[in-house]
Design brief:
69% helix, Molybdopterin biosynthesis moea protein, domain 2, 3 domains, two-stranded antiparallel ribbon, 283 residues, Four Helix Bundle (Hemerythrin (Met), subunit A), mainly alpha
């Protein structure tokens, strides 16, 4: 690892720590932080390339930025991440583009780790929200349980078919795989109910228009003069929409508050720095 990599790693980790704290407190990632990470990343790579005549080092930064730019857009437009998360991961693409461990590409290992750690982190945070708002969660869970009856019945049918097939299979590893499949169908049906109940009871709330910020997700459509100004189909509130709401003297808006996802980036980076791609640990 060259000196520039050490500097970039220190900058990346520092930015992630700050962004994680800010995300937990405000559910936002400052744009200036992401832009600073991108600029400093390219700046350090450019200096290294000029000093050591190693322009591949700058190219890796451009490539990492491009890949994470595509990933960020995909996650943003699929409403999995907010704009702040997408911009931050672009900066991480620049900073960690040339790092490698045991022949593994860092960004590939990091992205796989983000998917795994992010899923576990999201589940853990959802459990925390459910426990914190237990009364409302239980009521919502019962309602969603009734609404999602069809999904549970389909999952039950598939599970029964899988269990019946066990009587016709003698190979042990196939029987094990079938048992896992049956358990998955049942677990997934209840996981869908759990996630929806958490969303309805813990992540939706009314907030004053004065406290709205760009990127907020609106959970219910808002109309002004019988015309929709914003709603659930939007990728996030824009400044012009907030101004319209203020001029129309709309008092409150029903929004969906997302999970602060940046800490999972921090955990994934640390895990990747220490272990590399965690999938390879079991191989």
């Amino acid at each position: 690892m060259v000196v520039a990599d050490i500097i970039l790693t220190a900058i990346g980790l520092s930015a992630l720590v700050f962004a994680s704290v800010h995300d937990i407190k405000t559910r936002e990632v400052p744009d200036w932080l992401s832009y600073s990470l991108i600029v400093s990343g390219f700046g350090i790579r450019l200096v290294h390339s000029l000093v050591f005549s190693d322009f591949w080092y700058l190219f890796y930064g451009l490539l990492g930025f491009g890949v994470m730019f595509a990933v960020g857009l995909l996650m943003y437009y699929s409403k999995q991440w907010g704009g702040g998360d997408a911009k931050l991961i672009m900066g991480l693409g620049v900073v960690f583009a040339s790092s490698s461990f045991d022949g593994q590409n860092f960004l590939v290992g990091f992205w796989i780790n983000v998917l795994i750690i992010g899923a576990l982190y999201g589940l853990a945070w959802s459990i925390y929200l459910a426990v914190k708002n237990w009364g409302g969660f239980v009521k919502s869970f019962k309602k969603v349980l009734v609404k999602k009856r069809r999904i549970r019945r389909i999952a039950l049918v598939f599970s029964l078919l899988v269990i019946i097939s066990l009587f016709f299979v003698q190979i042990s590893y196939i029987r094990f795989a079938l048992c896992v499949a049956a358990l998955f169908f049942i677990s997934y049906s209840y996981l869908v109910v759990f996630v929806k109940a958490v969303e309805d009871s813990c992540m939706h709330k009314w907030i004053p228009v004065s406290k709205l910020t760009e990127g907020d997700w609106v959970a219910k459509p808002v109309y002004v003069n019988k015309k929709i100004v914003c709603g659930p189909k939007d990728l996030g509130l824009e400044k012009c929409q907030i101004n319209i709401l203020k001029k129309a003297r709309i008092k409150k808006v029903f929004i969906k508050e997302g999970i602060p996802f940046v800490p999972s980036f921090l955990i994934a980076v640390i895990v990747t720095l220490i272990f590399g791609n965690i999938i390879f640990l079991s191989l």
